[in-house]
């Protein structure tokens, strides 16, 4: 019996849906029927928009009533003078940064990205140089005097340079 009740409720729901669809169809067809019935001469004149004459002057007296009057431009000279006066007070040359306007070299972004790494390397290089000088001085003090050790450390060396 439980299946009969569920089947009965399903059939009821299907009938309700069919009834709603039928009502929608009737409503739709009734809307079309009223539009077709009102296509008489009186409603056709009401449905047409009235002409707007902007760029030419009609010769018919009945059409002359629909002509839009010519509009003269508003006087805005005072407003423009005020805006120009306000604009003169601001000195734009001071606000412009010439560095941002000048073209940059093609590799500026690479230099910016590598600069942090180069700073670390510079610090390491300076430490290494200082350590080498200390070693030379400590080894030189045993056999030589301090001035000759410094001169040999700062003398010309055969080092290849990457900077061109």
UniProtKB/TrEMBL annotation:
**Transmembrane stretches, by residue range?**
none
**Taxonomy, superkingdom:** Eukaryota
Bias (Basic and acidic residues) = 13-48
Instruction: Note down the stretches annotated as region Disordered.
Output: 1-52, 140-164
What's a single GO CC term here?
Answer: post-mRNA release spliceosomal complex
- Tell me the PANTHER family matching this sequence: COILED-COIL DOMAIN-CONTAINING PROTEIN 12, PRE-MRNA-SPLICING FACTOR CWF18
Q: What is this protein called?
A: Coiled-coil domain-containing protein 12
Lineage runs: Eukaryota, Metazoa, Ecdysozoa, Arthropoda, Chelicerata
């Amino acid at each position: 019996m439980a299946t009969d009740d569920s089947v009965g409720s399903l059939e009821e729901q299907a009938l309700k849906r069919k009834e709603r669809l039928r009502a929608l169809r009737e409503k739709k067809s009734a809307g079309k029927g009223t539009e077709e019935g009102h296509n008489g001469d009186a409603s056709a004149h009401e449905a047409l928009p009235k002409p707007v004459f902007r760029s030419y002057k009609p010769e018919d007296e009945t059409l002359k009533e629909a002509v839009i009057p010519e509009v003269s431009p508003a006087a805005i000279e005072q407003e423009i003078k005020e805006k120009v006066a306000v604009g003169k007070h601001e000195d734009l040359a001071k606000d412009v940064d010439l560095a941002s306007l000048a073209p940059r070299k093609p590799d500026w972004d690479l230099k910016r990205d590598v600069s942090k790494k180069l700073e670390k390397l510079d610090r390491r290089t300076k430490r290494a140089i200082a350590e080498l000088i200390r070693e030379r001085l400590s080894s030189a003090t045993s056999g030589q005097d301090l001035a000759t050790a410094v001169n040999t450390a700062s003398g010309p060396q055969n080092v290849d340079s990457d900077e061109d």
